[in-house]
Amino acid sequence: MSVRHFLTLKSLNRDELESIINRALELKKQVKQKKIITTLDNRVLGMIFEKSSTRTRVSFETGMAQLGGHAIYLAPTGTQIGRGEPLKDTARVLSKMVDCIMLRTFAHQKLEEFASYSDVPVINGLSDSFHPCQLLADLLTYTEARGSIENKKVVWLGDGNNMCHSYINAAKIFNFQLIISCPKEFVPAAEIYESSKENVSFEDDPHKAVGNADLVITDVWASMGQENEQNERKNKFKKYQVNSEIMVCAKSDALFMHCLPAHRNEEVTEEVLEGPQSVVWEEAGNRLHSSKALLEFLLN
Ligand code: CP
Ligand code: NVA
């Protein structure tokens, strides 16, 4: 059988994604019970980061250690990647040594090219276009707190970025309704939402968008690589800030999520981020369990 990669949520089908979420729930319990699990005994994960990371790095590195394997952190500085060795060469070399490779990079196309040269599974640890690993944790968090996300109303406020694109994919796969409220200039890529059209709609007024929502999500207004647009974006996105006035429009038991890191009092107020509807810390912690379940799925 040909090697399976995880480049977007669409790389796997709904049953497979659900099995990963269920396994993550089991693994989470087992961590609490301090059970020793060695499902990835002797296995090695190579992790290439061309952008910064806290959660992704620590979840995969800890995950490999907890499952009996090992992870190697590779950054452009200190490796030949930073000196210009092509990723396609790195892909072929690493696949001769490690069992799985996680890549965090800029253009999504680089990931696709990398995967096409790799003999071992490649995981998208975030690209400019998608962040599927975060979606596994978000779906796990929603499921734990509220049960199935099917037919729920999920509202995305802010930039039509990599996280938004992954939510668009998730809406179709898990059949929930996704309402996107963002400035016209920053709508998600048409080719991505076109394929999820039945599950995705747009509402410019954030108050209306959030009406009756089960889940409200946002992300930074300037992603990694867009730092020089930070100030200009702050003005353009102001009206899409998640604050108490917006949250009050959602269902009283609606949840708030953010992949983190968050910029307090920009895309979300301190009050909402630290408030009772926010599940962001559980969501961040769930990166560990969902990453472990994904690794087991791809490697075993
Ligand atoms: N949410 C997320 O991917 O965080 P990091 O950038 O810290 O990995
Ligand atoms: N959209 C953000 C997500 C960070 C986890 C970025 O790409 O920087």
Please explain how this structure is put together.
By secondary structure, this protein is an alpha/beta fold. It folds into two domains: about 10-130 and about 285-300, Rossmann fold (3-Layer(aba) Sandwich), CATH 3.40.50.1370; about 135-280, 3-Layer(aba) Sandwich (Rossmann fold). Helices cover about 40% and strands about 15% of the residues. It contains twelve helices and nine strands. Strands 7-6-5-8-9 form a five-stranded parallel sheet. A four-stranded parallel sheet has the order 2-1-3-4, with helices on both faces. Strand 3 (about 100-105), helix 4 and strand 4 (about 120-125) form a beta-alpha-beta unit. It is globular, with a radius of gyration of 19 Å. About 45% of the residues are buried. The mean pLDDT is about 95. Phosphoric acid mono(formamide)ester binds near residues 53, 56, 126 and 260.
Give a brief outline of the structure.
With 300 residues, the chain is an alpha/beta fold. It has helices at 14-32, 55-66, 87-95, 108-117, 132-146, 162-174, 190-194, 206-210, 230-237, 244-247, 270-273, 280-299; strands at residues 44-49, 70-74, 100-104, 122-124, 153-157, 177-181, 200-202, 215-218, 255-258. The protein contains 12 helices and 9 strands.
